[in-house]
Amino acid sequence: MLLKISNVFLRGISTVIPHNVLRAEELADISERDLKRMVKSTGFEQFRIAEKDAKASDYCVAAAEALIERTGISREKIDAIVFVSQTPDHIAPATSAILQSRLGLRDDIPVFDINHGCPGYVYGLFQSAMLVKAGLSRVLLCTGDTVSSYVAEGDRSTRFVFGDGGAATFVEEGMDEFYFSFYTDGSRYKSLWVPAVIGRGLVMDDVMPSKDDSPSNSQIHMDGAEIMTFSLEVVPSLLENFLQEVGISKNDVDIFALHQANKLIIETIARKMKLSNEKMPFRAGKYGNTSLVSIPLLLSDLLGDKQGAVENAVLCGFGVGLAAAAAYVPMRKTDIMRYIEV
Fold it and tell me: Hey, which residues does 65 pair with through a beta bridge?
């Protein structure tokens, strides 16, 4: 199903990554041969990892402050906060409430959290655009994750994948049209999940067998092969159908900014769609898979401080859920900042 939201504008994007760098060879005691094989397939040579007490909200605050300063927008002119993350500060209250206070925003604005991962940036854009369509002038979208805190030390399937960071985006009233499309197959949710629960009994037989190096119930369990299968089955067809429904060709799109799951997945999707690696780039080798931050981080890395470098973009997040989400967004006047290290 294609969804269109009119009279909106993507004003600006800023991203923040931790200054703490871990190289792939530091993360596990494996042979040089295995290390080279993993780096070649994933593309991840190093990872940006949050300090022990740092939260996704900390990186979102830093990104939001930078974006506010860059655009010169008064805090009084921000009409809502949408915070999207799998790693909130607390179970309660909503982290968006904490962000309202930390950023010094008005006390009469709606603030709320969305629990989503890899497709979460597109979901956040969709929710923000709907709020603008409902009558708000400007929404501050904060997206961030510190997934590394959920990774088991000895679990290679996740230790060689995830990094951390945050992003801030202004969605405003304007003259543009955003298009969205979504896909969800919740029956496959255990392919990427944290089994710990609140208010629901946990059947231990449903969890991976316990081993010394396996994740606990409060850490990420990932079936890498299933995620790969889902990505290659769903994403190309979702994007092809999306382009057809929007009524544009691949040549009309300046950049396909996909969630940076890993190098092999991105390059395989590009090959299946007959797109060049330049048009569907992988640029996360220095950061790792930063979950829902990977799309804005890709844009910051590739297009940061180059306003007008692209006319438009197709964004696509996919993974946890299992779910995928695509968006077509004009960007000819979007101020995309170079990423910041904190």
Answer: none
Region for residue 73 given its phi and psi (left: phi exceeds 0; alpha: psi -120 to 50; beta: otherwise): beta
Looking up tokens 């159908």, which residue turns up?
Answer: 241
pLDDT in tens, 278-334: 999 999 999 999 999 999 999 999 999 988 889 999 999 999 999 999 999 999 999
Encoded tokens for 174? 């304007």
C-alpha distances (whole Å) from 19 to each of 22, 124, 286, 303, 342 are 10, 26, 12, 21, 5
DSSP secondary structure, 32-88, as one string: HHHHHHHHHHH--SEEE---TT--HHHHHHHHHHHHHHHHT--GGG---EEEEESS-
Tokens encoding 48: 């940006």
Please state whether beta strands 46-48 and 21-23 pair in parallel, antiparallel, or not at all (unpaired): antiparallel
Kind of pairing, strands 138-145 and 81-85? Answer: parallel
Give the number of other CB atoms < 10 A from CB of residue 48.
Answer: 26
Degrees, nearest 5: CA angle 271-275-279: 130
314 membership: H or E segment, kind and range: strand 312-319
* Contacts of residue 5, Cβ cutoff 8 Å, sequence gap at least 6: 126, 129, 130, 132, 133, 177, 178, 179, 180
Q: What is the pTM (predicted TM-score) of this model?
A: 0.94
Find where tokens 């909106």 sit: 8
